Amino acid sequence: WTNSSEQLLLWRKYFQENQSLLLQVISNIKKISEVKNFALSNIPIYFISVPCSKDKEINAWFSWTPKETFIVVEIPFGIKPPKDSFPLSVLAHEFFHLMLRKNKKLFLKIDEIANKNKKILLSKSDGMPCRMFLEELIISSFVPEGYLSEKFFHTKPSHRIVKPKSLLDWRKFVALSLRDVSKDYVDNTQVIGDGYIKNLVKIIKTVK
After folding, report:
1. At 49, is the secondary structure helix, strand, or coil?
2. Largest CB tally within 10 Å, which of 3, 24, 114, 202?
3. Do residues 172 and 201 touch, judged by C-beta distance below 8 A?
4. Residue 99: per-residue pLDDT
5. Residues 46, 71: contact at Cβ < 8 Å?
6. Taking 60 as the threshold, does the pLDDT of residue 1 lie above it?
């Protein structure tokens, strides 16, 4: 218990010390998702030590209901905060999911396009619901695999994957394919909409 507590305190300190950088990314996400009223301070973040995990990186997931919203960060036991900003990009990714839900028009648009392309999305998603698969790829095309991470966290673009299979493969594939487009959206404050999402679906369809 003592070791877990000490580990979690180190991670809490890491995120607190890098809060200003995270806020810069969140500010950009607000703009491209056209969300104005979103306060990070209203979203609880729970840090959990995972003793049996073999992962070398943290994982995170969100919960969103009309009555309660929060983010959980799962930290493999013994893993210390790194010197790089990758964990910030993981957290930004989860906040992106929550912000999409604040823009009902965009949220419904993703649902509409996912349903229209249900067959092709399900054939690539390895069992994940087509709507969630599409949402994952939209967000990942910006962070953590996409241009937002490159701009603020100084990550390098992923190597090209010819035939993506896993969700991570697809995230990297789409992020690299849309790199110039997502850069334009971020740098010129364009709002994600019908055109961006349909462009992403076209990219998915290129993989046979």
Report:
1. strand
2. 114
3. no
4. 96
5. yes
6. no
Q: How many angstroms separate the Cα of 66 from the Cα of each of 11, 63, 101, 152, 161?
A: 29, 10, 11, 32, 38
Residue 70: how many other CB atoms lie within 10 Å: 15
Q: Per-residue pLDDT averaged across 32-37, rounded?
A: 94
Give the whole-number percent of the chain exceeding pLDDT 90: 85
Q: What is the pLDDT of residue 2?
A: 58
pTM for the full model?
0.94
Measured CA to CA, the distance from residue 88 to residue 154 in angstroms comes to 12
Residue 34's region, left for phi above 0, alpha for psi from -120 to 50, else beta, is left
Which H/E stretch holds residue 149?
A: helix 147-152
- Both tokens of residue 157? 């673009």
In the chain the first and final C-alpha atoms are separated, in Å, by: 49
Token representation of residue 142: 């910006």
Task: Round to whole Å and give the CA distance between 81 and 141.
Answer: 25
Nearest alpha-carbon partner for 125 in 174, 158, 179, 76: 174
Residue with tokens 């995270």: 22
Q: In whole angstroms, give the CA distance from residue 130 to residue 50.
A: 29
pLDDT at 72: 97
